[in-house]
């Protein structure tokens, strides 16, 4: 499925091994053979990429969790990597899956707990995450997009959002919940969105 | 040291070698299981009695050839989808389009004597339902094996992988079932085989992604 309003500057997120096209594949092949040093180097290098990837897509408070979840998934599923193939797309597919999982976690989390990190802790990450999510919000119904934008991106409380929109608290929460669920499904189904 | 650094140290310490996933081994396991089912049917005397006469007819060529093609394509898509980067939605759509095409192709080989019969006689619902159930039963061991392979691997689109798994198991089950199915009407095959295959694919799509975590 093609999303016409993808977040901008997607080329920066392509998983490319800075040391050369085959280095990560070779390191993973060595890791599959039980070489701990190669594995440590690979995980350290890929952590930088994963942090950049998730900073652009998730609230700052969720980035570390997502990175660690992705590292654990890479570790648990390392036997499925084919050393004849490039490592980047393999890792990027796992990272996308973890992005979807993390969005589901955010959608399930009580709404009131979310706002502080996003508004204060890391402005650059928050802006990048907001830019990415804003690009995706156009696919939602206006009421859902508005509720997510206010509560999840701009740090409004549920009560403030109710006053602003004239909706009840349960309606605002429902819009956020359904909107995030729809967003997650859109990301999951889109083959061209990484 | 951050918690991520500690995690990396923990994961890389005492790293044991892993046995790489081998698609060839997985295909071999599927073939052995399907052959085992076929052998059981033959040993139980379940083969249709006139198989020697009909095996070379255009109808049987369509039935066996079409299902073999579908089984091969859907197994390839399912196994491919088990590891990233996964099989795309386009590949799944291709498998379903191929299934429809194979069933429609049955019109070409329709027996003119049978096509003049009333629809309800051609469809024989009671016998057809038994055929659909037999396909579901024969699919279950194959689906179980594919489900184990899927859980051991890394499907990044579990729902798509589950659907491909169901389609693969069902078409393999239907292919095995062709040796004992006495029906000679392509309409009957198209309807009741499609019912059996759709039931297995839907069940797999609903059941397999549950509690799956990469």
Please characterize this protein's 3D structure.
The complex is a heterodimer of chains A (about 190) and B (about 210). With about 190 residues, chain A is mostly helical. Chain A has 2 domains: about 15-110, Rna Polymerase Sigma Factor, Chain: A (Orthogonal Bundle); about 115-195, Winged helix-like DNA-binding domain superfamily/Winged helix DNA-binding domain (Arc Repressor Mutant, subunit A). Helix content of chain A is about 70%, strand content about 0%. Chain A has 9 helices and no strands. Chain A starts with about 20 loop residues before the first helix and ends in a 5-residue tail after the last helix. With about 210 residues, chain B is an all-alpha fold. Chain B has one domain (about 20-205). Chain B is about 70% helix and about 0% strand. Chain B is built from 10 helices and no strands. The longest helix of chain B is centred in the middle third of the chain and has 28 residues, at about 125-150.
Record the SSE blueprint:
The complex is a heterodimer of chains A (194) and B (214).
Chain A: H1 23-32, H2 36-55, H3 60-76, H4 87-108, H5 115-121, H6 123-137, H7 142-153, H8 158-165, H9 169-189
Helix pairs in contact in A: 1-2, 2-3, 3-4, 4-9, 6-7, 7-9
Chain B: H1 3-12, H2 23-43, H3 51-54, H4 58-80, H5 89-105, H6 112-115, H7 119-123, H8 125-152, H9 158-177, H10 186-207
Helix pairs in contact in B: 2-8, 2-9, 4-5, 4-9, 8-9, 8-10, 9-10
Protein name (chain A): ECF RNA polymerase sigma factor SigF
Organism (chain A): Methylorubrum suomiense
Domain RNA polymerase sigma factor 70 region 4 type (chain A): 136-183
Choose one word for the global shape of chain A.
elongated
The oligomeric state of the chains shown is heterodimer
Euclidean distance between termini CA atoms of chain B = 27 Å
CATH class of the largest domain in chain A: Mainly Alpha
> By helix and strand content of chain B, what is the structural category?
mainly alpha
Ends apart, CA distance between termini of chain A: 12 Å
Mean pLDDT of chain A: 80
Helix and strand pattern of chain A: HHHHHHHHH
* Number of E strands of chain A: 0
Portion of residues within helices of chain B? over 70%
Pattern of helices and strands of chain B: HHHHHHHHHH
Measured by DSSP, the beta-strand proportion of chain B falls in under 5%
User: What's the architecture of the largest domain in chain A, going by CATH?
Assistant: Orthogonal Bundle
Count, helices of chain B: 10
CATH topology of the largest domain in chain A: Rna Polymerase Sigma Factor, Chain: A
Structural class of chain A: mainly alpha
Backbone shape of chain B: elongated
The CATH homologous superfamily of the largest domain in chain A corresponds to: RNA polymerase sigma factor, region 2, helix turn helix motif
Main beta-sheet annotation of chain A: none
Q: Which stretches of chain B of 5+ consecutive residues score pLDDT under 50?
A: none
